[in-house]
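Lay summary. Proteins are chains of building blocks that fold into shapes, and those shapes determine what they do. In this project we predict the shape from the chain. Here is one chain we studied, written as its sequence of building blocks.
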Amino acid sequence: MKHALLVLTASACLTISARADVPLYQVQFLGAGWGASGLNENGDVCGNGTVDGSLIRAGVSHDGQPFELLPLPVGMLTSRAYAISDLGVIVGVVCPNQYVQTQPTAAVWRPISGGGYEVEILGGLPGDPYSAAWAVNNAGDIIGASGFWGWNPDHGILYTESGPEPMPQGLLGADINDQRVVVSGNQLLDLDTGVLTTIPLPAGNWQGVVSAAINENNDLCGYIAGYSSCSVFPVRYLQATGWEILGGCSQSATSATALNDHGDALQYYYQTTDGVNFLGDGYFMLGSLIAPGQEYYVQYGGVAGINNSHQIVASARQGATGPIGAILMTPDLPASAEPLPSAEEIQVRAVPNPSFGQIRLEGTSSTLLGGDWMVIDIHGRRQAHFSGRQWNGRSDDGARLPAGVYFLRSAVDAIHPPVQVILR
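And here is the predicted shape, written in a compact code that computers can read:
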């Protein structure tokens, strides 16, 4: 167990950074009245909107396009989506009436060939009238809870092929990663080994941690609460460095809400601001990152996801008096980089991706696979080149490249979209 380190920001203010290498963002408006609740590595967004005046419905957005409603099971009237996996699987709840927030039943939506989704009701544990599924990984695990109170179910659930089962060790999980590690507060449960690890709290007088997300490094984020009148702080825990308090206290609500594999965290403050804390670069209000020429005003409380390509989903008003809805923020690619390809355009892919170093190219084009490739970083700078199907994740001088997003561009076919890879 690594020693926990507490890093406090000065006073009750956010630390604002002005590093020039943090990119500006292009914004896509996903629909008036919609709120995002999840984001995957493909840029797909799940969320919730209001239809027919008062009925809440779950939806999905692909490629920055407006939300599309997800189907309802027979007999159901409303729904909510909470999370989406990289495979497009969405988890949430459905309800036979308009009270989906207080009378929910856990459900899952799975993409089907040819487009669209099929929905399955998951339910809860025996004797519990209400349930919710709120996290899913790429291994197919779904977690949630059920209980007597629909707005606060307290019996942790692991959904299996045979149905809902109590979460091992009675844990009420908040999120699950692809390593099958569940986070709950400052505890990590490995579903493969059954080992429950408790991370010691930082020095101080704390009630505990409420976790929001876990990444593939078993880092976590959420908030930590003390006992004074102003003692709720957004917090991030990294396995490599320990605890870090990301901003000043709040008397009511503040939290880090999402975390990517780089350690970048989204956070909000009650009725004030939404922002992102880039690891090593500091805190930025989301509005300050929107590229000039776009009139969007970020709204409090909508930050729901950040992926390894640094895409962010949030909530914003379109123009000074326009509608409020979900937005997808995508970093500006350098002028020398091609737009990211759609799934239909990809002829070559990198595996594994993300990778800790060695990358192999696979695909249908023998010409591309056998040719020369350039490695470009997100700022358009050439970092390496290689020939053939294998790259070792190193620069031309042999040094291992820092973790981050890179683009492999073919020197054989300049028209072919670059292949995006992520180094950890």
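What the prediction tells us: Residues 1-20, 335-346 have pLDDT under 50 and may be disordered.
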